[in-house]
Amino acid sequence: MKTLPALTPPPRPTSRAFRFNQFVAAATVAGVAVSAAVLAARLPVRVVASRASAPLIVKLADAPADPREQQALLGRVLADAGVPMAADRPLGSGWWRLQPLADAAGNSAVWLTRLRADGRLAHAMPDLHERRAAVPTDSLFRPADPANAQWWLDDQSDTTNAGVANFTKAWDTTKNAASPVIAVLDSGITSHADLNANLLAGYNFVSKPEYANNGGVGRSANANDPGDALTQVEYDANTALWDGCVVNPVSSWHGTVVAGQLGAVTNNANGVAGINWNVRILPVRVSGKCGASVADMVDGMRWAAGLTVAGVPANPSPAKVLVIGFAGVPDKTTGRPPSCNVNDTDPNVAAAARLYSDAVTELRSQGVLVVAAAGNQSGSVGRPANCAGVFAVAAANRQGFKSIYSNFGTEVKLAVPGGDSANGATCDNDLADTGIVSTTNTGTTAPDKAGYGAVAGTSFAAPQVAGAAALMWATNPALTLAQVEAGLKASARPHVTAYALGYCTTLNKRRCTFNDTTGGAGLLDAAEAVKFALTPASYTPPVRASLGLQSAALTRCGAQQGSTAIPVPTPAPTPAPTPAPTPAPTPAPTPAPTPAPTPAPTPAPTPAPTPAPTPAPAATSGGGGGAASGVWLLGLLGAAGALGSRRRLD
What we know:
Helix content is 24%, strand content 12%. The two termini are 31 Å apart. The strands form 5 sheets. It has a 7-stranded parallel sheet with strand order 7-8-6-10-11-12-13, sandwiched between helices. Strands 2-3-1-4 form a 4-stranded antiparallel sheet, with helices on both faces. It has a two-stranded antiparallel ribbon with strand order 5-9. The protein is globular and about 115 Å long. It contains 16 helices and 17 strands. By secondary structure, it is α/β, with parallel strands linked by helices.
């Protein structure tokens, strides 16, 4: 194998506590209750100036079918409530984004209180900003042997690569098949010679020019990633603009990494391979310097799936699979992750949950698969991965147990290696792997040269499931969404059992053993998923037991973490072999009785003799009556010897 060029790790992000109530970057939001064509062609959308007062999002309780009537009703609600805002744009299913008027003065919190008191509205919430699922604060380093950098794409091996998805075996069937379009909803894309050939023309949905960081343009038909770094100097210079945003002094190039996992140009004797050899990647930029606005995210989801978005050209290449690297983190005050419960006691959380649920329902009706990262806080699954209808993915270590950072819980559908790089944490010296290698950019804040880097996070586990689903549809385009989801789970390998690390619980949440209540149906097996796709009606998964892992390194880690070890099964004693029965001796044949001699009769007197003729000699017996021929017996013994020595070679 040709040695790869030296890997350049992306910059390490600086962690900063969140300053606002966080929601996850929405899973494929597409709920359109009215005709999207009508929205685009007929609906007058008022353009208003942005002020310090925050935009809001509301849902009409009983939305008329006609979008003009919706807008008129909304205008009456705002007037009656004395809220100086106007409808900015529809978000589907009766949801609208509201923008403060240019001369508006007031407090968004007061306006929310008034709007929530109006029975004509089902929900009212701030248009919060989301951030991508953060890359854990692990140092990203160059693998010692670049030729083996992409272990996550290599053969599954119980001894060296127990957790991986076996993509190499899946390629035997799919490498020449055209995959459906995969949309990457993320930070955008940077130019990379090992990726450009597989990219479609995407779109930038970051509407606020300062957040879009694209020269004051804002929303545009250019999904390039200009960088999402926000320095402390920038933040301090305009705290009103950046309030609620997270300071990251370096750009993530997150969208480029994910796109490379899925669609790097493969089999070209250069750089890295991608999961899908014949794929089209649709970059949809929804995240900028202040994460992702819910409203921008909603529009990006709808557009990616082929639904019409007001003011945006139609998407000529709708995606069949969407992958989202966003996950809500625990609230700073309550410590709980944002739920996807429409009845949550927090009205903001409930409204966001309803928005996401409406959108996911609409998107699923289009047959679109939404895959989302579970999150990287070693806790409960974040949103939108915890929403019904979203395929949540947790991250495993190369050996198959949970990565140190991955979230876990009942909402997880599958686990797959997401990298578990060393960062000086407990057990890193013994158990860390070298991370997920993919395409990236070497720039610190703005794009520079293309490169390759090692990363870790559930954001890089989710694309593997999205890629496997695309391989299934490439193999059998007639598969339904339900069949693809069922096949991914039915074909999964059982979770490994790392005895010394114990099972994952709220108290044992670092490196630990997944089970079906914390890590879904098992570990992704792309090769078996493709087999399911070939014959979904008759597929029978192979019978496989959980692989038990034991080593001195695992034992040390379990002790350091204080894990409650899983008892190692005591092997059943090997039964003594049953002796072959002694054959009964063959009795000697009983000789036939010798007949008593017949007494010679008393001869009559002999007359004078007449000379008798000389008799002919008697004929010799031919061996009849069942006697065995010696030659025939030797032949039979020879045949028996030949049968006994023949080997089965199939």
